[in-house]
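URGENT: need a sanity check before tomorrow's submission.

F., can you look over the Core domain-containing protein record below? I want to be sure the sequence and structure line up before it goes out.
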Amino acid sequence: MQLFVTEKAEVAIKKLFPEESTVIRVRTEYNGGCSVYVIVDLVRDELVESDVVYDKDGIVVLVSDYGKEYLGEKVTIDYGVGFSVRTPNETIVYGLSIAK
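Structure tokens as predicted:
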């Protein structure tokens, strides 16, 4: 899996958390019921051994094994009105903030 953070997203993350290195997870959760869908959001978190890791200039982004399967081979985190998580085929979520 390739994981990218755009320059706009890097600037926004550093404005939110200027004091230290920041670890952010692209969290994916299965939500069952009559239909199956996955919730995707951004949260501050800690490393798990099986995570995919993006690490650049004090910004660390993590994706779990489950998230890798759902998100695909290439994921980009961008910033506009809020944070967005995109794959080559679609924008999965947009307008996100980072939960602390």
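My own read: Residues 84 and 94 are 4 Å apart (CA to CA). The chain has one domain: 2-99. If you see anything odd, call me.
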